[in-house]
Amino acid sequence: MASIFGHIAASAAFGYTCFPKEVRATTLLLAGGLAFAPDLDVLAFHFGIPYGSQWGHRGWTHSLVFTILLGLLTGLIFNYLQKNKSRHHPSKIILWFILSAVSHPLLDMLTNGGRGCALWWPFDATRIFFPWNPIAVSPLGAAAFFSEWGLKVLLSEFFWIGLPALGLVMLGKLFRRA
Ligand SMILES: [Zn+2]
Q1: Could you tell me the distance, in angstroms and rounded to a whole number, from the CA of residue 17 to the centre of ligand 1?
Q2: Which of 6, 12, 112, 132 could pair with 157 in a Cys bridge, judged by C-beta atoms 3.0 to 4.6 Å apart?
Q3: Backbone angle region of 132, left / alpha / beta, with phi > 0 → left and psi within -120 to 50 → alpha
Q4: What is the pTM assigned to this prediction?
């Protein structure tokens, strides 16, 4: 995993850049939750499901099929609940939520440790990475995060996720002004 901070930064950057009119506290929170949600699969370890299993960490929850469906479903439910009382653009909300969820496995595939993601599950459960892995992998336990390792992860994510995310938001602002 990238850390929770990296995933949430990416989802917020998508919102502020591509869907600024849809950005609210609730939508930011939901997009951030979606960007982090695939890592709830670490619970699988508690049920004795091994890392390498398609049902284990970075398995089915880190696939395009699962993340697209997760974003789509959350967007549909959100739009349904907001019906008549929101100025949100329903299809933009759905797109933002899907992008946020899908960004999770893509960022994980840029990390330098653990197993790759089963991006093509259920068609192919092979764990894959991108050929370039600049992001320091985040430890699995919260306790391990408060260590030198955690600090390294935050620094690496600041460079490889935080700065590009900030750049994206600023670029979006410039484009809208122009
Ligand atoms: Zn992950």
Answers
A1: 23
A2: 6
A3: beta
A4: 0.91
